[in-house]
Structure formats: C-alpha cells, structure tokens
Design goal:
Helix content of chain A is about 45%, strand content about 20%. The longest helix of chain A has 18 residues. In chain A, helix 4 packs parallel to helix 5, helix 5 packs parallel to helix 10 and helix 7 packs across helix 8. In chain A, the strands form two sheets. Chain A has a six-stranded parallel sheet with strand order 3-2-1-4-5-6, with helices on both faces. A four-stranded mixed sheet of chain A has the order 7-9-10-8. Chain A contains twelve helices and ten strands. At the A-B interface, helix 2, helix 6 and helix 12 of A face helix 2, helix 6 and helix 12 of B.
Chain lengths: ~280, ~280
C-alpha cells in the first residue's frame, strides 16, 4: 500500500521531536498502522537554525503554504502554535482535503467549533491528542474508551509549568519568581509565561476535555480562570502545617444548572494523609 | 441508519450489568457511535433465575447457538466465561461473520491466537477491552494511544481480589483465609478462588497486555506465576516495619533475551516514603 505522506509545519521542540519519533519508530509504526508513515515535507521560519531533528530526506520550506498546497501531502501536522495565521493555515489545509494533526490547544479551544465543522463538511479528520497532556492518551480514552459511560466530573493538574512551580515552592521553600525564572531557563515555560501562571493554558485544556467528556461545544469564555501568581511561600508553608498541599486544578462538573468549568488552586489534604487508612 | 443488533451470551454479574449500561446510556451511546446499539437477544442457562437487569424487549433463549445462528445479529457479546465450549461458540460466531466482544481473559490468553487468526480471515473484529482492568480503557490506550511508542516495560496490580486481600491484611491485621472468605461472600472472588490467589488470573491479563505492548503472540505458558497464598500476616507486619508494602504485580519487560513475563508479590518501599522527596 502507498505510504502516507506527512508534512510538518514547525520544527521547534515539539515539531523536531515529532520528526525524531516518526523516524526512529518508523518500522513499528508501519507494522501497527498497516501503512508506512513518511514525513516528506516540513516548514520552519528560519531554515539556517540548528535543529534537534535530522531533516535528511525531507523537503524544507519557509512557507507552510508550500506544504498545504502540495497535492502529494495526505496529512498536515501543525506544530507552530498560536491562533492568528495558523488558524488560516489549518482551514486552508482542510479546504484542500487534507487531514490535520495539531498539538495547538489554544487554537482548538478558541476556534475548534469552526475548524471541526469545516473538517466534517470536507470529510477529513482533525486529530489533537497531543493538545492535552502530551503523550498521555487522555482524549482517546475519554472519547472512545469511555464512550459507553456518562461522565459526572473530571479534575486534574493540567499545566506542567504551574505544577513544577508549586512543587518546587513546597519541596525547597523557594519563591514563586525564583522558580518561574528557572522554569523559563529550562524551557518548561514560555518566554511570556502568562498562559501558564494565569491558568489560561489550563483553561484551554479544560475546555477541550469538557467538550469531549460532556458532548458540548468548545466554550473557553465560560471557564472561570484563576492562576497561581498570588500564591506565596507562606501560603505553601501554612497549607503544609495544616496537612494540605496547594495544587492548581482544572475541574469540570456536570451540575443541574449546566457544566461547571473552573481552573484555580485547591488546598487538598496531602496525599500521605488521604491514603493512610 | 439501521441499528446495530447485539446478542448477549450470559446474564450474570457482567452480562446483566452490560444490559443495564447499554439500556441506560442508549441515547448517549447512539449519539457518539452514530448508530443505535440495541440488545435484541440474550441467552442464559436458567431463564427462571432472578436477574440484575431488565430484559424487557429482549428475546431470551437457553441455547447461545440461537443467537450465534441468527442472521439479524451483528455483534455477539460473550460474557459466559471459561474456555471449554465457549471457545467453540466464539469460533462459530466468527464463522457466521459476526463481530465478537468478550470480557473473557482466560479465553483470549489461552486461545486468542487461533481466535484472532480466524477473525482476520473472516474480516470481523474481536474486541476484548473488558478482559483486562474492567472499565479502564488500558487495551485501547496501549494499542492505539501509544502506537507511536516503543514500550520497554509495564507493571501493575492486575488482580482486584488479591489486592483486596493484601490491603485488608495490612490495614486490619487480618489473616489471609479470613479475608478470602469475606471476598468470596462479597462476590469479588470466585467460589473457586484459585485463579485469583494463585496468580493465574493476573497471568492471563499480563499475557494479553504484553502481546499488545510488544507485538508478540499470546504466550501464557511463558509467564512465571506465583500467588499470594503463602503470604502471612507476619510477612505483612515485617514489611510494614521495614517501610515496605507487599503488592502482587504483573510485570512484562523487554530484555535483550526476549520479553520477560512475571506475576508475583513484590516488596516495594511504601508509597509514603517514595513520594516524600
């Protein structure tokens, strides 16, 4: 059978990692998928930049439209991020009859309804497993694995950077700003970490999870969002003394009044005490 | 679109529960599946027995072959259990071109290779998500959700009865036989609990998980199996004093010599100490 030709938009941390995994596990993936999956094209803003992936055998361009308009491409993998011109890229890829894979949670949370409607209309698939919880197949588990169930509520730590900051504050008694600077230096947080520390990133993910779990449209504007910027070392210490830990959670709950969507920090009794029964 | 007609073989705890869930969540399931899924027939050994499910609107028989030979049935759901005549039932259902859903882990572990070969040959699906970890979609997560990954090892508590016994022994200082008798009375353990306490049930599940995770044939005969029958209250107490807990695990590991498959109790350092960093 003819291989599946993939074009990757964006060759940063996620795009480069995707190229590496698809190349390294090519034989195993082909065995499982029943067809070879080959990255034939990729785009990046600056082609002279040093990459974490080997781009040998991949046609490179600076213009993503080269890929989107290439009739030989079956699947466009969007790993640029953001919601501006990227939305237009994805809509054009769908218009051109291509399946789309994206890890872009803000795009799905804010414009998913429009994107999915167009994809349905054109008979193509928009897959977004990596948009929430990276390598953990939570989207598939909720949508397919639990499709016979009625979900009452879901809750989880859904922002890694925020969780790293709270954990370091608790374990090492460090200050918020100090840990945030380290998270940025380590590449966990964005240069502008607002999305992470203000709960916006978690809000995007909660929007997506709730839409799948409860069969409702994507409604980011309905999410109550609170970040962790006002949590101090003293809060963390007091919580600890009282037997609690501060965690930043996304919570979606089916209530008689509708689906409740909340992102904020919760003071849960510490895990040690909860399980010590 | 025409509804999917389902015939359920066996109306015990699992079969009756399946009827209840498919009836209760019918509207939601139809919305997600894109087609109505209707149980039109069911079989049980003794039709006079009191059931946990409402069988209104379902044609009942004592002979499962009535269902397997009914041309209107699309999917046969086998919830009888065991490996004797049930294997013949499933092979005949496949021969008749029906898709099969089963929760029968011993059947899949021991005869899955033959069953899957026949299903592939006849172009039908044999689905067995419920054979391992009941309502947790672990089969789908490994097979589809992680299909781009190379799995190095997997480990878990995969027998609920054994875990209940060890937990009660630890938490309440009870004796093995005492807890086992309670587990039987509560309906957790079978009347003959050998499969649970000798690690055979966990071995069946490990066989299935390893086959999917590593892409190898089902090989229950290669599993090293040890049960929990020789664990005493004193063992549990000593482990606790040393900061450990005794857990019964299934472990599959990719080694240079091949795939290692083991079911036995492990003395892991207690969770409190492990996470207290």
């Amino acid at each position: 059978m003819k291989p599946v030709n993939v074009g990757v938009l964006g060759l940063g941390t996620v795009g480069g990692g995707t190229v590496n995994v698809l190349k390294r596990n090519a034989a195993e993936i082909a065995r499982r998928a029943g067809r070879q999956i080959v990255i034939t094209r990729a785009s990046a803003k600056d082609l002279s930049k040093k990459r974490i992936c080997d781009t040998h055998g991949i046609i490179l361009s600076t213009d993503p439209m080269d890929i989107i308009n290439d009739p030989s491409i079956d699947i466009v993998v969007e790993l640029i991020g953001g919601t501006g011109f990227v939305k237009e890229l994805i809509l054009q890829a769908i218009e051109n009859g291509k399946h789309v894979v994206t890890a872009n949670k803000s795009l799905i949370a804010l414009h998913g309804n429009e994107i999915f409607a167009k994809a349905s209309n054109k008979g193509v698939i928009v897959a977004f497993e990596a948009a929430v919880a990276g390598g953990i197949p939570i989207i598939k588990a909720i949508r397919e694995g639990l499709s016979g169930n009625q979900i009452q509520w879901l809750a989880g730590i859904i922002n890694g950077t925020g969780n790293f900051i709270l954990t370091e504050m608790r374990d090492k008694g460090r200050d918020f700003n100090d840990v945030l600077a380290e998270a940025q230096a380590l590449g966990y947080a964005e240069a502008d970490p607002t999305f992470d520390v203000e709960g916006i990133d978690a809000g995007h993910k909660l929007t997506i999870l709730a839409s799948i779990a409860f069969g409702i449209p994507l409604q980011f504007d309905k999410v109550y969002t609170e970040g962790i910027t006002h949590i101090t070392r003293i809060d963390v210490e007091y919580a600890e003394q009282l037997g609690y830990r501060i965690k930043h959670l996304g919570i979606a709950r089916n209530t008689p009044a509708g689906i409740e969507l909340r992102v904020h920090q919760s003071r849960y009794q510490s895990f040690n005490k909860q399980t010590a029964t």
